[in-house]
Design a protein that fits this description.
The complex is a heterodimer of chains A (307) and B (336). Chain A has 307 residues and is mainly α. Chain A has helices at residues 5-13, 19-30, 37-61, 63-66, 68-92, 99-121, 130-146, 149-162, 171-174, 177-196, 203-222, 228-249, 252-274, 277-306; one strand at 33-35. The chains are: A mainly alpha (307), B mainly alpha (336).
């Protein structure tokens, strides 16, 4: 079994690692203290996803036999029980590390139930996408109430769905610029929400959603003949801003995907302008090598800035 | 790269995840600095993909100008990779791995395909050689998958099963000793997880209760090892083997439909995680449940859950028509 015990002891003895910091780390390497917190939480999450997946299959397979009202009621009750359980545990002050997954189960069941009810009875008629807005409001409110990033992620995803944004790669090639505009509008709405947000722990999630929506919208425009240059310009300008933000927040992930989105946009524009296969491949080789070198430089600078 | 250098590089990566004051972290990183250039998991994945794009484009370019694209790409890629490793000391950047793997694969694809399963062995060799050279278990492990897949493609289903389980048993036995190189340890852990699953997938429909028992025994052995040696990799391997055992036995347990199996499996997993959490609560030695920051767990919980949430279909602006419609969400989609 691998152990960095020796190196950690050395760092402590050399005075580089404070004894109070070194002690738990050394114990961990020796196997005296092994936290399986992350593993247990991932296990609980998989459990929740399996339950929700199974419920979804039951709905689709037994629809005729059980009937829509019974299905909608059963899922609704199950969802309510999860919310109630979480609220009661929280109120009693006995909440455990895994209770958040009960809450997540309730939220996902609620999402499935709302979608099912709308698909079945068309309560909102032609305005049926508004059920996503309803979900966004409920998940958003409960996210703030229970301080849950997972519920906030569900709320943001529901808003994106309300704006009609599909989460598939094929969108890039098949969409019109109306979808790009919807992506920008969605990003703008989330930016307003982020400004009003007072919970610091939620900021990163907003930032990731906003950045990806803007880049996605920009790339959709880049892949359209008539908006190619405008789309690429949006992606490149936003990539510069995102990179700056990534450095400021010490979040390399922003730097990485800003760079990748920008490279894709630039490559699409130039490859389209060149036209000939041989020259396109030659350009791809040269530009990607250039991108790797530039990203290496940025990566190095990021390391120094973080230090 | 010698053992001490590899350990220093891996430890320096771990230091980035520790909650330390900036000055202390910088001092430790300076102490652990080697001549090798390395990058984190995410950055190396990006470099790996970008480099594969270059290798692929070069392969296509050589074909268009009518020169032997396989060999030329292989020679150029491997030469550049070796230069980067020996002169510029690249290790775990993603670039040298992609060059080695891309170069070897280009040589194989350049030979042309006869559609024989033996081609899979060549691809397996490419992954294993590239993985061994750059000491990257994530490149080498698919090599094992291809070897077992070859047995499956030849319709030697029992051999695929035996190979998967045998490789896992060997990996478990080897994990009992103390390894100095982190890459060796990681390779054994990945083998423990990947080999039995590949064997089970390829022998799908050709198994019996006896195979279920064998997988369950493997899961039990990994659990015992994991608990006794407090080895996380073996514990995760045990969970993977248990799921594989249930997959193998699904025909035996045919009295449950897929949806109830999903729900029962989910409920068991959730109940087990609750039981473990309760059993370990308050413990300060051995296995504990002390919260530790895990970017992986955070990403799974937040973005994984969002991915399972309802989303709009391809014609979002159109209202549902008549008595039908679609809904998707919570991992399910249904048409009515």
């Amino acid at each position: 079994m691998l152990s960095f015990d020796r190196e950690l002891v050395q760092l402590r003895d050399e005075g580089l690692l404070r004894p109070e910091m070194a002690s738990p780390l050394i114990s961990g390497e020796r196997g005296e203290i092994v936290s399986i917190h992350a593993e247990v939480r991932v296990m609980a999450w998989i459990g929740v996803m399996l339950i929700v997946g199974g419920a979804g299959v039951i709905v689709s397979k037994n629809f005729d036999r059980i009937g829509p009202l019974a299905i909608a009621t059963a899922i609704g009750v199950a969802s309510a029980v999860c919310y109630l359980w979480f609220a009661m545990r929280r109120k009693s002050g006995r909440s455990g590390a895994l209770d958040v997954y009960i809450l997540l189960l309730g939220a996902l069941l609620l999402s499935a139930d709302t979608g099912f009810i709308e698909a079945q009875w068309h309560l909102l008629g032609g305005a049926w996408p508004r059920h996503f807005l309803l979900l966004a409001l409920i998940h958003g409110a409960t996210a703030y109430l229970f301080r849950s990033e997972a519920l906030l992620a569900l709320a943001l995803a529901a808003i994106a769905s309300w704006f009609g944004i599909e989460r598939t790669l094929g969108t890039l090639f098949t969409s019109s610029h109306a979808l790009a505009m919807r992506a920008f509008a969605c990003a703008g709405s989330l930016a307003v929400w982020r400004m009003a947000n007072r919970r610091r722990e939620f900021e990163r999630l907003f930032d990731h959603f906003i950045a990806n929506l803007v880049f996605w919208g920009g790339l959709i425009l880049t892949f359209q003949q008539e908006t190619r240059f405008a789309g690429a310009a949006i992606v490149v300008i936003f990539a510069v801003l995102t990179t700056w933000y990534g450095f400021r927040r010490r979040e390399e992930l922003f730097v990485l995907y800003a760079f990748v989105y920008a490279v894709v946009a630039i490559d699409v524009v130039i490859a389209e302008a060149i036209g000939t296969n041989i020259l396109v491949l030659l350009f791809l080789i040269v530009s990607t090598i250039g991108a790797i070198v530039a990203l290496f430089w940025l990566h190095g600078r990021f390391g120094k800035a973080a230090a | 790269m010698n053992v001490a250098e590899e350990r220093a590089v891996v430890l320096a990566r771990r230091v980035r995840g520790w909650e330390l004051p900036d000055a202390e972290r910088a001092a430790i990183e300076k102490r652990l600095a080697t001549r090798w250039k390395s990058s984190g998991m995410l950055a190396s994945a990006v470099f790996f993909v970008l480099t594969l794009v270059v290798v692929g484009a070069f392969y296509g370019f050589c074909a268009l100008i009518h020169i032997p694209n396989g060999w030329v790409t292989a020679v150029v890629s491997l030469s550049v990779a070796e230069t980067l490793i020996r002169r510029l000391h690249f290790f775990g950047t993603g670039v040298e791995s992609a060059l080695w793997l891309g170069g070897l694969l280009a040589a194989i694809f350049g030979l042309g395909s006869e559609g024989k399963p033996e081609g899979l062995l060549l691809i397996a060799a490419a992954f294993l050689i590239a993985g061994a050279r750059v000491r990257n278990p994530f490149i080498a492990a698919p090599g094992l998958v291809f070897v077992i897949s070859y047995l499956g493609l030849k319709h030697w289903f029992m051999a695929a099963l035996v190979a998967g389980i045998a490789l896992a048993v060997i990996a478990l036995a080897l994990l009992a000793r103390t390894w100095q190189r982190p890459s060796t340890e990681m390779m054994l852990i990945i083998t423990l997880m990947v080999a039995p699953v590949t064997g089970a997938v390829w022998s799908n429909g050709h198994t019996s209760v006896a195979w279920f028992a064998l997988y369950a025994a493997l899961a039990f052995a990994e659990l015992v090892f994991g608990v006794a040696r407090r080895h996380r990799g073996a514990l995760v391997g045990s969970a993977v083997s248990l799921v594989t055992a249930l997959f193998v036995a699904r025909a035996t347990f045919d009295f449950l439909s897929i949806e109830w199996k999903l729900i029962a499996g989910g409920a068991v997993l959730f109940a087990a995680s609750l039981a473990i959490e309760r059993a370990l609560r308050g413990r300060t030695r051995g296995f504990v449940i002390t919260p530790v920051k895990s970017a992986f767990e955070e990403a799974v919980r937040i973005f994984g859950s969002a991915a399972f949430s309802p989303q709009t279909g391809p014609h979002a602006t159109e209202p549902p028509i008549g008595g039908g419609g679609q809904f998707g969400g919570a991992g399910s989609s249904g048409s009515f």
